[in-house]
Write a structure and sequence with these properties.
globular; 3 helices; 97 residues; alpha/beta; Rossmann fold; three-stranded parallel beta sheet
Length: 97
């Protein structure tokens, strides 16, 4: 899973390594994110990355069960200064702390 995928470039690059790759972002949040989702869909389609699935959600409120993912990454997210905060929230939500 990619947190904050934007146009999903990194997700598409890594897609061949996984059976399914879920790319998340706040796609419905504002005009910038709406442009990003359109670009992500075009990129996924043009490169035939059928195993990349786009999900609109916050990194602090993921709609997945604990231990659902084997690999989670984030790249170029402008809010990386909050990463330890997000990891703490995710860990608490999944009863890991």
């Amino acid at each position: 899973m990619e947190l904050g995928c934007g146009n999903a470039f990194q997700s598409v690059l890594l897609a061949s390594l996984f059976r399914e790759l879920i790319a998340t972002d706040l796609f419905n949040n504002n005009d910038y994110h709406k442009i990003e989702i359109r670009q992500a869909k075009r990129l996924i389609y043009s490169l035939n990355a059928k195993n990349v699935r786009l999900i609109s959600c916050s990194a602090t409120d993921l709609p997945f069960t604990s231990s659902y993912f084997d690999f989670v990454f984030s790249s170029s997210v402008t809010a990386l200064k909050y990463l330890s905060y997000l990891i703490g929230i995710i860990a608490v939500k999944n009863n890991r702390i």
